[in-house]
Amino acid sequence: MIIRIDTQAKAAYVKIKDGVYHHTREILPEVFADYNSSNDIIGVELISPCTLTLRKLARKLRLPVFDKIKKPLEEICSS
After folding, report:
1. Are the C-beta atoms of 42 and 34 separated by less than 8 Å?
2. Three-state SS for 21?
3. What is the pLDDT along the chain (79 residues), one digit of tens a residue?
4. Residue 17: beta bridge partners?
5. Which residues are CB-contacts of 56 (< 8 A; sequence separation ≥ 6)?
6. Number of C-beta neighbours around residue 48 at 10 A
7. Coil, strand or helix at 68
8. What is the Cα–Cα distance from 6 to 47, expressed in whole angstroms?
9. Which of 24, 30, 55, 61 is most exposed, with minimal Cβ within 10 Å?
10. Three-class DSSP category at 32
11. What percent of the residues of the chain are helix, what percent strand, and what percent coil, each to the nearest 5?
């Protein structure tokens, strides 16, 4: 998993696994999931992650990896 933080845009991208991008869906307000052609999630973009409930996102995606992004997001939320 790779996490990219853009502090100017106040956004974060979580790359869950390698894959070729096929399409994007908005899965929650300001949360966009990137899928491959097999409809597997390969990444998630979080717009305004400070306002997002991470537990809600983890439940929606059924992915426990989002517990790991709390620390990097503190950098965005504190600015």
Report:
1. yes
2. coil
3. 788 888 788 888 989 999 999 999 998 888 899 999 999 999 999 887 766 666 666 667 776 655 555 555 555 566 5
4. none
5. 28
6. 15
7. helix
8. 10
9. 55
10. strand
11. 30, 35, 35
